[in-house]
Design goal:
The model is unreliable at 1-11 (pLDDT under 50). The radius of gyration is 12 Å and the shape is globular. It is an alpha+beta fold and 89 residues long. The protein is 22% helix and 19% strand. A three-stranded antiparallel β-sheet has the order 3-4-5. The chain has two helices and five strands, in the order E-E-H-H-E-E-E.
Length: 89
């Protein structure tokens, strides 16, 4: 996912994640993905798209663990989370 900041700079979703959690975020399959709505689907549109991208991701497990531990919502590690609770495996 890419977020547009007020300065018009583009930041990848993975750039917003704390590097202290894992030094592997730069390897995330979602890095630079243009389908922004797929990562934070409501109600669950494009879940299959995001899950497909996650399927081959080298940090899939770390990503899902991060979401559960930090209360994230959206698609993380190929699973859909709502405030850190997995709602769809």
């Amino acid at each position: 996912m890419t977020v547009e900041l007020e300065t018009s700079a583009h930041v990848d979703l993975t750039d917003l994640l704390p590097l202290s959690d894992s030094r592997e975020w730069h390897r995330a399959a979602c890095r630079g993905d243009p389908n922004h709505d797929a990562w934070f689907p409501y109600p669950s549109q494009d879940f299959e798209y995001a899950r497909g991208v996650c399927a081959g991701c080298p940090i899939r497990d770390t990503c899902g663990e991060f979401a559960a531990r930090t209360g994230q919502s959206g698609v993380w590690g190929g699973h859909e989370f709502d405030r850190g609770r997995m709602i769809r495996p």
